[in-house]
What we know:
Layout: H1 2-7, H2 11-20, H3 24-33, H4 45-53, H5 64-72, H6 76-88, H7 96-107, H8 114-125, H9 134-137
Amino acid sequence: LVVRAVANSDSAANDILFRRLGGAAPVRAFLTRNGIAGVRVDRQERDLQTEAAGIAWRPEFVEPALLQAAIAAVPPDRADAAFAASLTDGRDTATPLGMASLLHALATGALLSPESTAFLLAAMERTATFSDRLRAGAPPGWTVA
């Protein structure tokens, strides 16, 4: 699940992990215990994505065709308003310093056990999405995770 969530940007795997961890409150408590400020975790990916599209999550949306049909049925003005609102919504956001602090703590082994750190960093290195972004600008021989 971790590899699928991280390396493949699999939203369903992310949501399963989120629920297994107990939701947002335990994740926020973990960040706080580890001195990570400026990173907000509030919702499952399914809720974040559907709200940004102007609809509310429904269980039948596990079927991709039904989700796409529901999104397509949202009137353009409502879809535009929902997307604009998502851009200013403070939930599920991170400041640059907060994210840098989180990644530094992870990379230096201050956040997880050595085994979990190695596993997560390896999963991050396998990220297949957005190869035209950070990875595209990195010099040859650099590792992007």
